[in-house]
Structures are given as C-alpha cells and as structure tokens.
C-alpha cells in the first residue's frame, strides 16, 4: 500500500516509530508533504534517510502570506533534489482566513508555474466555507489555465460534485480518512466514480484519522482503513486496490 500524502514530521510520534508501523501495515511508499521553507527541508531530510519516503515541497495556502519571489525560487531549487517528486501542497482555502485570498492566489499560481517548468505533479488543497464552492471553482480555473500537460493531484478529495470534471481533466483524486466518516455519503459515492487509473489514497497524517481510530492522531499506517473502505465501495478486493493505487502513484511520482 502507499500513502500519497502525509505530513510525517508534523506527527508528534518519532518518525522511525511511525515508519516502522507503516512498514508493518504493508506500506511501501509514503509521500511526505512540506508546508513552508523549514518544513520542506524537514521532508527532504526524512526522504534522504528512508528509501520508502519521498517528498513534496511547497507553501500551504494557510501560510501563503508573505510568499514572494525568493520563496518561489527556494521551492524551485529544492525541487531539484532527487527525492522530491511533487510540488505542493498549494491551492485555495476560503474556510480558514490565516492568509489573504490574494496571497493564496499568488503562491498557488507560482507553484503551478514551477510544477509546469519542472514537469512535476502539483498537489492541490481546496477548502471552502460551508455550503460554498468558490475555492474549488477557482482552483479548477487556475489549473485549467496551466494547460493539459500539468499532472494534478486533488489531495484529500472532498468535492464530490466535481468528481466527473476532475475525471474529464485526467486529474488524480486522492481519498483520505474523511471518506470513512458517517456524514460522508456523497464522498463515498464519488469514490466509486474515479477512473481506475486516477485513484489514490492517503492519510494527511496527523490529521483526518479514519473513523475506527478517530480518538487517536493519524499516522501513515492508518491508510489501510481508508484503502479497505475504498476497495469495498468499488467492489474490488484490498489487494486489487493496492495494486491499482501503487501503479498510479508509481506512474505519477516516478518512484
Ligand atoms: Zn496536507
């Protein structure tokens, strides 16, 4: 199994412990995702120390204030590292207001441009205020402007009404622990609609712990529960889903 999106260094547990638990749970690859300059370097260091760990480097939309040319250049230079396989996470978050929409837009557009120049996939975070879909709609517009060559992962996919539009664009949809929550019926229906060659699973650890362990902090090993549910929904066995998502991640991230 793979975890297409975790923040391993944000977990409070020791990274060696988490990676050992992940190995025991059958995980063979983990993408650990940077959020800012310091965090990007932590993810690369972790990836250097562990064969099964790869890194994404970027600036999270919630931290986008102050993003400037130097910040973009820093991401682009870190992305040359052999274990960096994606740019992000980036995107738009109109649920939280820790960064202005204009800062988020500037950081997002810069990171999409970097991903395009380097031929790396871009990992997208989209979150709207309750009942709205402005962040999703605008994220789609921004990515559409980048053109068809860009590989896109909609991380923690939570926009069920947009699943067909993502599919038409050939974008990857990565399902996290929230697909296991009782209220996520529409999201479970969306998980069935993603094409076989575009589905991924993730933890977003330490956030979004799957339902049966919801009192605990999340960790990469727990992707097994999310993957098991997604396999059931799609009417395939766990092993078949595992082969599918492993092949998708290998193609996308080149690992
Ligand atoms: Zn994340």
Lay out the secondary structure.
Elements: E1 2-6, H1 15-24, E2 29-33, H2 37-49, E3 53-57, H3 69-78, E4 84-93, H4 101-118, E5 122-127, H5 134-146, E6 152-154, H6 163-168, E7 172-175, H7 185-193, E8 199-201, H8 223-234, H9 238-253
Parallel strand pairs: 1-2, 2-3, 3-4, 4-5, 5-6, 6-7, 7-8
Helix pairs in contact: 2-3, 8-9
Bound molecules: zinc ion.
Can you say what the CATH homologous superfamily is? Metal-dependent hydrolases
Average pLDDT figure: 97
Number of helices: 9
| Cα-based radius of gyration, to the nearest Å | 17 Å
Q: Could you describe the largest sheet, including whether it forms a barrel?
A: 8 strands, parallel
Strand order of the largest sheet: 1-2-3-4-5-6-7-8
The overall number of domains is 1
Question: How is this structure best described in words?
Answer:
By secondary structure, this protein is an alpha/beta fold. The protein has one domain (2-253): TIM Barrel. The chain has helices at residues 15-24, 37-49, 69-78, 101-118, 134-146, 163-168, 185-193, 223-234, 238-253, and strands spanning 2-6, 29-33, 53-57, 84-93, 122-127, 152-154, 172-175, 199-201. An eight-stranded parallel sheet has the order 1-2-3-4-5-6-7-8. Helix 2 (37-49) runs parallel beside helix 3 (69-78) and helix 8 packs across helix 9. It starts with a strand and ends with a helix. The chain binds zinc ion. Zinc ion binds next to loops.
């Amino acid at each position: 199994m793979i975890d297409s999106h975790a923040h391993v260094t944000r977990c409070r547990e020791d990274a060696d412990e988490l990676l050992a638990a992940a190995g025991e749970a059958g995980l063979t690859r983990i993408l650990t995702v940077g959020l800012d300059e310091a965090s990007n370097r932590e993810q690369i260091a972790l990836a250097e120390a562990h064969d099964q760990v790869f890194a994404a480097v970027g600036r999270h939309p919630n931290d986008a204030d102050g993003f400037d040319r130097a910040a973009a250049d820093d991401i682009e230079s870190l992305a040359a590292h052999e274990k960096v396989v994606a740019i992000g996470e980036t995107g738009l978050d109109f649920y939280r207001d820790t960064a202005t929409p204009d800062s988020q837009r500037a950081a997002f557009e810069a990171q999409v441009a970097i991903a395009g120049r380097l031929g790396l996939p871009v990992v997208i975070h989209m979150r709207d205020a309750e009942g709205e879909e402005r962040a999703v709609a605008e994220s789609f517009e921004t990515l559409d402007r980048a053109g068809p060559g860009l590989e896109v992962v909609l991380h923690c996919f939570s926009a069920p009404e947009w699943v067909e539009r993502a599919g038409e664009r050939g974008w990857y949809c990565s399902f996290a622990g929230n697909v296991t929550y009782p209220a996520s019926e529409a999201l479970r229906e969306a998980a069935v609609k993603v094409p076989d060659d575009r589905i991924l699973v993730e933890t977003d650890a330490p956030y979004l712990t799957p339902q049966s362990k919801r009192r605990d902090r999340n960790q990469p090993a727990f992707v097994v529960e999310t993957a098991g549910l997604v396999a059931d929904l799609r009417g395939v066995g766990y092993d078949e889903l595992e082969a599918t998502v492993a092949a998708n991640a290998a193609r996308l991230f080149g690992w």
